[in-house]
Each structure stands twice: as C-alpha cells, then as structure tokens.
Amino acid sequence: GRERVGRVSDSALPAGNYANPFAAISCTGLGEDIVDESLASVLAVRAAGLRNLKRAFDLTFREAKSRSRKLAAIGVDRNGNCIWNQTTEILYYAFRAGAKSGCFRLE
C-alpha cells in the first residue's frame, strides 16, 4: 500500500496503539486504514465492554474486511490471553507469556 505524502511515522495514537485496564493493542498495515478505523482503541474499548478480547477482534475485523481495509492487530488482555487477526495476506507476530514460549508465525 501507499502512504500519503509527508507521512513519516506509524499510525497515530490511539488508532495504532492503545491500552486500557482490560487490554493492550498494537496494529500494523496501511496506516490510513488503521486511523480511519481507529483500530486499536476500538478493539480495546470493545474488549472491555464485551469482557472478551476474541469477540472484540472477531467483530471488529469482520467490519474491517467488509470495508476492504488492509490492516492487522495483536492484543493481550489483562489475563495474558493473546489474540491477533488480519485482513492482510501476511502477518508476522511473536509474543511470550511468562516463562513459556509464545506463538511465532513467520511466512
């Protein structure tokens, strides 16, 4: 994807990175789509309201896909559950939970 002329940083807070007492979210993809969706803050607020990070991701990414957005996100809830989703073909991610190895996916 193409960024707008003059764009020099990652997606603006709170659209690209956001945390509340229930969840922390970080996004990647086409920055303009992330900002338009206010992706990180929507995910965190929905997760808190639903008390379920996976349901928040499922709902939000279903909506984003219907609008042909190119984005992805990874989030962790206050219990350490890690969730990710994407509308892009590829998403590289890694996380570590305590002393255990986390998930790694490299394509």
Q: How would you write the strand order of the largest sheet?
A: 1-2-3-4
Approximate shape: globular
β-strand percent reads: 15-25%
* First and last CA, distance: 19 Å
Based on the model shown, name its key terms.
4-stranded antiparallel sheet; disordered C terminus; alpha+beta; two-stranded antiparallel ribbon
Description:
By secondary structure, the protein is α+β, with helices and mostly antiparallel strands. It is 31% helix and 24% strand. The protein has 3 helices and 6 strands. The chain has helices at 31-37, 39-50, 53-66; strands spanning 17-19, 23-29, 71-77, 82-86, 93-94, 104-105. The strands form 2 sheets. Strands 1-2-3-4 form a 4-stranded antiparallel beta sheet. It has a two-stranded antiparallel sheet with strand order 5-6. Strand 1 (17-19) and strand 2 form a beta hairpin. Helix 2 packs across helix 3 (53-66). The longest helix has 14 residues, at 53-66. The protein is globular and about 40 Å long. It starts with 16 loop residues before the first strand and ends with a strand.
